[in-house]
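Contributing new complexes? Match this layout with MRU.
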Amino acid sequence: MKDDYTMKRFLKGVGGGPVFFKKNALFLLDQRKIPREEKYIRVKTAKETAAAIRKMVVRGAPAIGVAAAYGMALGRGNITLAADVLLKSRPTAVNLKWAVDRMLAINTDNFGKLLKEAEKIEKENKVLCEKISKNGAKLIKKNSVVMTHCNAGALATGGTGTALGVLYAAKKKIKLVIVKETRPRLQGANLTTYELKKWKMPYILISDTASAFAMKKYNVSAIIVGADRIASNGDTANKIGTYALAIEARYHRIPFYVAAPYSTIDFGIKSGKKIVIEERNQDEVLKINGKPIAVAGTKAFNPAFDVTPAKLISAIITERGFIKNPDRKKMEQLYG
Ligand code: MRU
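Output block (do not edit by hand):
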C-alpha cells in the first residue's frame, strides 16, 4: 500500500495512522521500518494480528490494544480462539488484555458487531489521548527542556500520544525535547525523532548512557514517559530504562511524569511485583543491524520493560487529571 500515512492526514482524522481498518483488513504501519520507509502490512486474521504484535510491527500499549480489538473482529467467527492467540502475543501491556476482554464482553461472533466495537475503541483512544495531553500540558512550565524515553506518541497510540501528546499540546512552552535512543530496539531514535520532526518540535537525540549527564548539562525541567501497565498502587511498568531514568531524575530533583489512559491501569494487581515482564530474544542485545557486537557465545539478558516504584513518580497523568505523588488511595479516588 502506498504511503497512506502522514501525521497531518492522521491527525485530521481522515485516515492513515499506525492502525486502521479498511476493506475487511487491518492495516498496520510497519514500525520496524520507520524512519527509513512508511510501509503498511495488511493483516486478515487474528493469528496474523498476534504475529504482527509479537514482531513489533505495531507496538506501544494503546496501539497494541486497538490492533488486538480489530484482531478479535478478524477472528473468523471464533472469538475464544482469537482471544487466546492474541493474549499470548505480548504479556506486559495490559491494554491488550483490556481490549480483548472488552471485545469478549460483546459476547458475539458476529463480524459486524465486533468491528463496530473495535472502531469504538479506536475512536475512544483518540479522545483519551487528547484529554491526557491537555491535562499534562498544565504541568509543563514555560521554556521547558523535557526528556523522554521510548516512543509514547502517535505511533504508539493511534491518537496524538500520551507522553508525546503532552509535549505537542504544550509545544509553545517547550524549548527542547531530549530523546533517549532506547536500546535495544531504538524506539526513541527511530520513532520519536520521526514524530517530533513532523511536529516541527525542537529536539536532540542522546544515547541512553548520556541521560544523567544531559539532565545536568541542559538543566532539564521535567521528564515524561508513557506506561505499559500501572499497578493499583501506582508502580509503573514501561520501556526498559525507565526505572533508571526515574532514579536519575530523583537525584537531580527533576519532576518525573507518567502519562497513560485508564486502560493502562490494572486494578487487579496490588503492586508492580505482580507485573509480568516480557523478555525478548537475546539477539536484540547481541546484534546491531544483524551484526554481532559481542564475542561469540556471549549470553544476554533482554527485558523489554522495567517497573518504576510509585514513590519515584511525581505525577501520573490520565484523561481524568493528574495524581501527584501517586499511591493506592489516590488512584482509587480518581477511578473508584
Ligand atoms: O516495546 P514497545 O515499543 O511496545 O514499548 C512501548 C513503551 O514502553 C511505551 O512507553 C508504552 O507502551 C506507552 S505508549 C503510549
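Reviewers usually confirm one structural detail per submission. For this one: The chain has a mean pLDDT of 94.
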